[in-house]
Design goal:
Elements (H helix, E strand, L loop, with lengths): L9 H4 L16 E2 L11 H10 L12 H11 L6 E4 L2 H12 L5 E6 L4 H8 L3 E6 L8 H6 L5 E7 L11 H10 L5 E5 L18 H7 L3 E6 L12 E4 L2 H9 L8 H12 L1 H24 L11 E4 L5 H10 L2 E2 L1 E3 L3 E5 L3 H18 L1
């Protein structure tokens, strides 16, 4: 009798691997591959975490009540409109688990955040990737055209990771207007704090304002980027209370550890100081973008804490050129290279390597 084997779900077997940003080795000491905040945590945040470590034998608050209250207060929402999790990816997984059944479809832009196709497949749904426009923006018309009777949700990323452009208010509202009343829109705003635009005719989408008007919209946010807490993993979603209660039901109990809760709460208290750091990162981003465009690079609108080199099949070659100069970046095979904004010295190396590469390519 032939031995039987335990078999995993076909969707799990075929899952694409999430590729993390490369980590420094040897003399490589400039890590610009993971969109991390280059500033270390504030001393008051470190002190709060250190104090909280004395109680590590205790379970954390399962619902992170104090943190949820602080987040709700910041956005002028009720506490039952906020759910937190172990990073925004875990929150996304909880949302899709609460929403999707086998046969459902989730539409998302591509290329975009690598976790999207993985989270959709784990939830048992079918992903419907929609290619971006040549300038790295969402193809809103194509996304609307991709909607079918099986569509359960549409994922949007603003600013889009890894290309950089942010969705306008008109684009988000047009998508919502075109969707059936039972289709959810998840707007991932992981980098929203870095957005700066002067275009009064096409303002960037105000997710919180749209959320107040349309019950189908759910926002995803994170403490990893602007707040500099990537090592502690705290994300959250904002939505209507009826939906959020379902997201909480599918969340991992005690999903946000005690130290992460303390760090996030203290970071909210230091919001203004942290946003000054964000302003400094944005200033560096603008300097880098201006420098690259002056070299002749076609850099898309950069609204996150990173820039995008749309070099197609040359992605691996450009990434190696950066690595040889001691800078780790994130290549996406066949599409391009994403480079996080770091400290000025690291950014200067990026500009120098880019200029040399550009010159050799002409």
């Amino acid at each position: 009798m032939a031995a039987k084997k335990v078999r995993l779900r076909d969707q799990v077997i075929s899952l694409p691997a999430y590729v993390p940003g490369a980590r420094p080795r040897g003399t490589m000491n400039e890590k610009l591959s993971s969109n991390e905040n280059p500033y270390p945590p504030l001393s008051r945040v470190v002190a709060a975490v250190s104090d909280a470590a004395a109680d590590l034998n205790r379970y954390p608050d399962m619902l992170a009540g104090e943190l949820v209250e602080a987040i709700a207060a910041m956005f002028g929402l009720d506490v039952d409109q906020v759910v937190v999790g172990n990073g925004s990816v875990a929150v996304l997984e909880s949302i899709l688990a609460a929403l999707c059944e086998r046969g459902d479809e989730v539409v998302y832009p591509w290329r975009s955040f690598e976790a999207y196709p993985i989270a959709v497949a784990v939830a048992g749904a079918t992903g419907v990737p929609v290619p971006l426009l040549p300038d790295g923006r969402h193809d809103v018309d194509a996304m609307i055209a991709a909607i079918t009777p099986r569509t359960k949700a549409v994922l949007l990323c603003s600013p889009n990771n890894p290309t950089g452009p942010a969705l306008t208010d008109a684009e988000v509202r047009r998508i919502l207007a075109a969707l059936p009343p039972d289709v959810m829109v998840l707007l991932d705003e992981a980098y929203i704090e870095f957005v700066r635009t002067q275009d009064e005719d096409e303002p960037v989408a105000d997710g919180v304002a749209i959320l107040r008007e349309d019950p189908r919209l759910v926002l995803l946010r994170t403490f990893s980027k602007a707040y500099g807490l990537a090592g502690l993993r705290v994300g959250f979603a904002l939505g209507r209370s009826r939906l959020v209660s379902g997201f909480r039901a599918t969340s991992t109990p005690f999903g946000v550890n005690a130290l992460a809760q303390v760090a996030a709460l203290e970071s909210l208290r230091a919001h203004d100081q942290l946003m000054e750091r964000v302003d400094a990162i944005v200033d560096e981003r603008e300097r880098v973008v201006a420098g690259l465009r002056a070299q002749g690079w076609d850099i898309p609108e950069a609204q996150g804490n990173f820039v995008w080199f749309p070099v197609g099949d040359e992605a691996g070659v450009l990434a190696r050129a950066f690595a040889e100069s001691g800078v780790l970046v994130r290549p996406f095979a066949g599409d391009g290279v994403r480079v996080s904004i770091g400290e000025r010295e690291a950014n200067d190396i990026v500009l120098a390597v880019a200029a040399e590469f550009r010159g050799s390519a002409i």
